[in-house]
From TrEMBL:
The lineage of its organism: Eukaryota, Viridiplantae, Streptophyta, Embryophyta, Tracheophyta. This is glutathione transferase. Residues 1-80 form the GST N-terminal domain. Belongs to the GST superfamily. Zeta family. CDD domains: GST_C_Zeta (cd03191), GST_N_Zeta (cd03042). GO terms for cellular component: cytoplasm. It comes from Brassica campestris.
C-alpha cells in the first residue's frame, strides 16, 4: 500500500490516523504542495484533481480522504470506525461533513493563497477564522450531548479522525482559541494519549521540516 501525502495536509492526516488505527503498513510518498508537486503530470495520473491524499492498494487507486477511510474500514473492519448505533453513526457522518465541506475547503492552500494575492493577508486571516469558528460552533453543539472520552462516546470513531487534524491545524496554523469549544478541546486532549493519533501527527512525518519535530 502507498500513501501520497503532505505532512501538514489535514486531509492526509486523517487518513494516516485511519491507517495507524488499523495497524496497516504503507509506503509514505511525500508530495510537496508548496513546491507544486501536486501538479506534476505523473502525480495527476494518480489523482487528476492534483490533491493529497491518494492511496494506491494494488490495482486500487483512491484519491479522496473520506473514500479512502471508508475503503479501509470495509476492507479491514477492526477496529470499526463507525458505531453500531444508527443515531451515533449519523452524528459521525455529520461531524465529518462539517469538517470536510464546511471548514477544510475554506482553509485549503489554494484558496487562501488566492485570497491573499487578490485582496490581502488580513482578509485571508479573517476568511479562515470565520470558517473555522462557524464550523467549530456547529460541531460543539452537535457533540456536546453525545461526547464521552472522545467525540461520540468512549471509542474512537470516524468523527475523531476528522476532528483531530482540524483542531491541530486550527491551533497550530491559525492560532484559534479553543476556550469557546470545551467539548472539542476535551476530545483533542484525549487524542494525545492515543499512539495511533500521535504516530500520524504532522511533525512525525518524514517530509516534516526539522523545526517542527
Amino acid at each position: 500500500m502507498k500513501l501520497y501525502s503532505y505532512w501538514r495536509s489535514s486531509c492526509a492526516h486523517r487518513v494516516r490516523i485511519a491507517l495507524s488505527l488499523k495497524g496497516l503498513e504503507y509506503e509514505y510518498i511525500p508530495v510537496n504542495l508548496l513546491k507544486g508537486e501536486q501538479s506534476d503530470p505523473d502525480f495527476k495520473k494518480i489523482n487528476p484533481m492534483g490533491t493529497v491524499p491518494a492511496l494506491v492498494d494494488g490495482d486500487v487507486v483512491i484519491s479522496d480522504s473520506l473514500a479512502i477511510i471508508m475503503y479501509l474500514d470495509e476492507k479491514y473492519p477492526e477496529p470499526p470506525l463507525l458505531p453500531p448505533d444508527l443515531h451515533k453513526r449519523a452524528v459521525n457522518f455529520q461531524a465529518a461533513s462539517i469538517v470536510l465541506s464546511g471548514i477544510q475547503p475554506h482553509q485549503n492552500l489554494g484558496v487562501i493563497k488566492f485570497i491573499e494575492e487578490k485582496i490581502n493577508s488580513e482578509e485571508k486571516t479573517a476568511w479562515v477564522t470565520n470558517a473555522i469558528t462557524k464550523g467549530f460552533t456547529a460541531l460543539e453543539k452537535l457533540l456536546v450531548s453525545c461526547a464521552g472520552k472522545h467525540a461520540t462516546g468512549d471509542e474512537v470513531y470516524l468523527a475523531d479522525l476528522f476532528l483531530a487534524p482540524q483542531i491541530y491545524g486550527a491551533i497550530n496554523r491559525f492560532q484559534i482559541n479553543m476556550e469557546p469549544y470545551p467539548t472539542l478541546a476535551k476530545c483533542y486532549e484525549s487524542y494525545k494519549d492515543l499512539p495511533a493519533f500521535q504516530n500520524a501527527a504532522p511533525e512525525k512525518q518524514p517530509d516534516a521540516p526539522a523545526s517542527t519535530s
